[in-house]
Structures are given as C-alpha cells and as structure tokens.
C-alpha cells in the first residue's frame, strides 16, 4: 500500500525508480539495485556495487517491454524474500508503463517527424537555458543558422518525395559532422540551427565550413546529378545577448550569405 501510493505521485521514470528503490531499501531487500530502460539508454544505480546473490527481472506488461531490474546483496535470498521482491515489482509495473509512455510522448513532441532531429518547439524550449548555462559557466557559445539553397527548385523539379529525402540526408550529414555536445534542430522548412556549446568564433567558423563542405559533397541516392548546398550564418554570444539578439545576428548573416551567392559561411558582425 505504501509503495502503490508513492508510485502514483510521479510520471518521471528516474523519480519513480528512486521511490521504488527507497521502499525496497527500507525492507532490506537489496544492497545494490540497477534499472535499465528499454530504449532510451537510461541506466540507474542505487546502493553499493553489485553483490554475489542476484535477482534479475525483465519487466513487461502484455507485450510492452519496460526494461530490466536487478537487485543483489551479499546475503542469500530466501523464498519469502523473493516473493516480497516480486510483489513489489508487480506494484511497479503499471506506474512504470505510464511513466515510460509519458516520456515517449514528451520526447515525440520535441522531435521532427521527418528527419528525427529536434524541432522548433525543442529549440524554443532549450535555447534560453543553453545561454544561461554557458553564461554561468563563463563559457563561449556560438550559433549556426543554415538554409538549403534553392530548395523550392528541388521540390519543383524532382517532387516533394525527393525534397523530403534531401531534408533527411542533410540532417544526417550535419548530425554526423557536429560534436555530441552540440545540438541540431530543424527550425522550419529547409532551415536548420546548430547550438555550439563551448565554441568560440574561430571554432564555430571552422565547424560551419566543415558542414558546408560535407553537404556540398553529398550525393542523394539514385540522383547523383543533384547537388545540395547550404548557406550558413554564424554568431557568437556576447555579453548582454538574449536568445533573440543572438539568433537575429546569425539569421542576418545567413541572408548575407544568400545574397552574396549562396554555398558559403558568413560570420555576424
């Protein structure tokens, strides 16, 4: 009853497992508890290092995989303790399923359905936080705004199916070029944004040029004669910058790149 009541208070997976671990710990049912989520890569650990006497469970509701929990301790488990562990796990199943479904829904709302990268909603939600975090750390932050050149012409000449393929290939190419600490967003239409954490002006320019070169060398499957290029505008965070001013400078640099002939990188003033 105590466990069921606690598990109804949250839809955050990590908080849910922490509450579960607390109740199990109060019953001395583990020295070590590990949870691995089914798809997100989330791995949570509570207590000591893994002990020699282990109980491992693959958690499922109907055909839905909810992950794996392993509890272990130095003392051997008896039958009544195993039954108690399994009763606690039974109480966890449906709250955990609901939390995982909620997490999936939230993540989907922040992903672009075509390219699989973060969308405009995610950018609007994250960008202010990125600026404040880098400011507190006294770290540099740069922004790259990019646009596929003559994208309307691609759609008109080859059709929207090819246009969609171009968007997906460009997103993949940019994602493979940037670092794991950087964030790529599809801002809208054929426009993309990369937030470069801990990157100064020189580093941002070098990365933007590398993105431009990689996309210029990209060849779309079955359309080897179709060349895709990008125009890119780059700005670096200054003292007193807001999300709006930082983005505006990069966006203005992008339009300079387009007006100067496209397929180039322009740094903001």
UniProtKB/TrEMBL annotation:
GO molecular function annotation: diguanylate cyclase activity
Kindly give the SMART domains that the UniProt entry links to this protein.
GGDEF (SM00267)
Q: Which Gene3D superfamilies match?
A: 3.30.70.270
- Report the leader peptide range: none
Cofactor(s) for this protein? Answer: Mg(2+)
GO biological process: what's one of them?
A: cell adhesion involved in single-species biofilm formation
Question: CDD domains attached here?
Answer: GGDEF
- Enzyme class, top EC level, equals transferase
EC no. given is 2.7.7.65
Name the chemical reaction catalysed here: 2 GTP = 3',3'-c-di-GMP + 2 diphosphate
Q: Which GO terms describe its cellular component?
A: plasma membrane
Q: Which residues form the GGDEF domain?
A: 139-269
**What NCBIfam families does the database record attribute to this sequence?**
GGDEF
* Protein known as: diguanylate cyclase
Q: Which organism is it from?
A: Candidatus Thiodiazotropha endoloripes
